[in-house]
C-alpha cells in the first residue's frame, strides 16, 4: 500500500542562460500524510540523471526511489521525512550543483530558491542533501559552502581528487573535441546525433560538462588542456582544483564540523578512481576532527543505488536526534 503521495510542482530559478527571465525547474516530492515540520531530504541526481529518473525510473532489476522508500517505510526503517527530487538536467548531460556562466546558477537555485521555498511550504527546519557521483559531489560541496542552509550530507561515490577521476579521460576528450575546434562546437554536433550512448562520446560529454561548471569564463567553456597537444593549461586546471573537495576542505572544514550528519561511501572497484579520492577526503576529514561516517563496499561505480538503503535511515536518525 502506498504510504506517500507524489506531487510535482515548479520552482523558479534566480536566473537562467537557457531562456529569458526566470526558468522553472520541476520538483518531485514524496509526501507523508503529515508533513508539518518534517525534515527535507533533497536527492541530487548523478551525471546523465535527473530527479524524475531517480524517483520514477523503470528498471526490471533495480528499484526506483519511490519503490525503495516505500519498502523501507513499510519496514519502519524510514518515513519521517519529506523526500525531494529536483529536476536540474542541463544541455551538458547533468549538473554539478555549482554556479556556472555556461550552464546556470544551480548552487544559488538550491540554497536561495528551492530550500527556502520548501521550508515555507512544509514548515521544515532540517535539510539534508543526498546524492551519488555528481550528486554526491554536490551534496558535499554545498554542505561545505552553506552550513547555514544544510544540516546533513551524504556523498555516495562523489567526485574527489580530480587528478585521478578526470585526467584519465582528457586524451579521449581532446581527440573528439579537436575535430570541431571547441567544446561548444562538439556539443552542438553531439546534440544532433541519433545515438548518444557511444562510450567515447559519453566520456567527452562528461569532461565538457565538468568544464562548463568548473571553468566557464564569460559563458565560454574553457577546457583544462590544449586541444592540439593535451598539455595542461595550468590556469584553467587551477579553476577545477579549486572545486575539488579534497582541496575545499582546507577552507571549509569548520562548516562540516557543525553538521548533524556527514557520510561518505565508495565502491572498492570504482571505475573512476573514486576509491582513492574518497580515502584522501576521509583522511583529511579525520585530520580536521570532522565527525563522519565512512564505508567502502565491494562493488563498482555503477548500479549501486541500493546503498541508499543504508544512508537514508542514517540521515533520518541523525536529523531526528539533533536540533539547531
Automatic annotation (TrEMBL):
Pfam families per UniProt: Esterase
Single GO molecular function: acyltransferase activity, transferring groups other than amino-acyl groups
Name by which UniProt lists this protein: Esterase
Amino acid at each position: 500500500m502506498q504510504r506517500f503521495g507524489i506531487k510535482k510542482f515548479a520552482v523558479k530559478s534566480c536566473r537562467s542562460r537557457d531562456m529569458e527571465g526566470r526558468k522553472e525547474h520541476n520538483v518531485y516530492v514524496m509526501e507523508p500524510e503529515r508533513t508539518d515540520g518534517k525534515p527535507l531530504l533533497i536527492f541530487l541526481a548523478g551525471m546523465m540523471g535527473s530527479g524524475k529518473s531517480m524517483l520514477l525510473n523503470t528498471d526490471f532489476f533495480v528499484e526506483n526511489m519511490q519503490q525503495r522508500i516505500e519498502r523501507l517505510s513499510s519496514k519502519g526503517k524510514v518515513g519521517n521525512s519529506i523526500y525531494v527530487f529536483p529536476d536540474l538536467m542541463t544541455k551538458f548531460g547533468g549538473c554539478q550543483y555549482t554556479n556556472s556562466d555556461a550552464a546556470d546558477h544551480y548552487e544559488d537555485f538550491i540554497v536561495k530558491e528551492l530550500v527556502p521555498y520548501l521550508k515555507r511550504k512544509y514548515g521544515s527546519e532540517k535539510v539534508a542533501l543526498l546524492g551519488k557521483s555528481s550528486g554526491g559531489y554536490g551534496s558535499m560541496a554545498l554542505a561545505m559552502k552553506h552550513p547555514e542552509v544544510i544540516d546533513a550530507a551524504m556523498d555516495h561515490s562523489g567526485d574527489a581528487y580530480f587528478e585521478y577521476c578526470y585526467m584519465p579521460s582528457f586524451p579521449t576528450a581532446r581527440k573528439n573535441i579537436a575535430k570541431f575546434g571547441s567544446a561548444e562546437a562538439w556539443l552542438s554536433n553531439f546534440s544532433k546525433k541519433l545515438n548518444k550512448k557511444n562510450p567515447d562520446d559519453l566520456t567527452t560529454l562528461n569532461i565538457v560538462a565538468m568544464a562548463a561548471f568548473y571553468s566557464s569564463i564569460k559563458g565560454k567553456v574553457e577546457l583544462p588542456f590544449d586541444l592540439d597537444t593535451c598539455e595542461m593549461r595550468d590556469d584553467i586546471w587551477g579553476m577545477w582544483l579549486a572545486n575539488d573537495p579534497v582541496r575545499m576542505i582546507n577552507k571549509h572544514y569548520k562548516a562540516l564540523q557543525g553538521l548533524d550528519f556527514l557520510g561518505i561511501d565508495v565502491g572498492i572497484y570504482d571505475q573512476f578512481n573514486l576509491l582513492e579520492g574518497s580515502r584522501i577526503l576521509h583522511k583529511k576529514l579525520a585530520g580536521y576532527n570532522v565527525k563522519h561516517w565512512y564505508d567502502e563496499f565491494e562493488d563498482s561505480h555503477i548500479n549501486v543505488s541500493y546503498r541508499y538503503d543504508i544512508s537514508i535511515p542514517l540521515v533520518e536518525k541523525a536529523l531526528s536526534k539533533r536540533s539547531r
